[in-house]
Design goal:
Layout lengths: L29 H21 L7 E4 L5 H13 L2 E4 L11
Parallel strand pairs: 1-2
Helix pairs in contact: 1-2
Length: 96
């Protein structure tokens, strides 16, 4: 797994110096390990850089049940930011 930060993490192939690779523990699947390099940094950048939410402020997010959404909730709590979270139940019917 490439050591973060890595641009272009959704590539099928990547040429990188072997010294910048991190071993994947045997108990993690490749897909889980790859998510660790993408989702947590995305949540961190959204809250701290893109939105610049400060402790004591409130953050409203949709898709709160997604992986990034759940990470935003945890990160916000750690930073003293309140969240209002919108999601949908898995069993909700879809209508067009």
């Amino acid at each position: 797994m490439p050591e973060p930060p890595v641009a272009g993490t959704w590539q099928e192939y990547l040429v990188i110096d072997a010294r910048r690779l991190l071993p994947v523990p045997d108990h993690l699947s490749d897909s889980t390990a790859c998510q660790l390099a993408v989702n947590p940094p995305t949540a961190l950048l959204l809250v701290t850089r893109e939105l610049d939410v400060q402790p004591g402020e409130c953050l409203l997010q949709t898709a709160a049940g997604s992986t990034v959404g759940r990470l935003v909730i945890q990160l916000a709590r750690h930073l003293g930011i309140r969240t209002i979270n919108v999601g949908s139940a898995i069993s909700s019917p879809t209508r067009c």
